[in-house]
Amino acid sequence: TRATAMGLCKSRLGRSMRLREALSTLSDVLVPSEEYYRSGNTAANDIFNILRQYRNDVDRITIGGSMGKRTAISTG
């Protein structure tokens, strides 16, 4: 009947809206904030400036890591 069809449409619409809201929340959590990138960039610049100042004292520099994980710096 028409009432049943309307109920199904509202039910699907409700599920769709909940799914859309959940996906939006998930994307907000997964995407790092602008401050995250800015502070990471500042830290990286500070490290490279310090290393540049002491470049004659360091034979080799290895930097490894990835976004969201700890970065290792090895000097030799």
From TrEMBL:
Domain of life, source organism: Eukaryota
Protein name: Uncharacterized protein
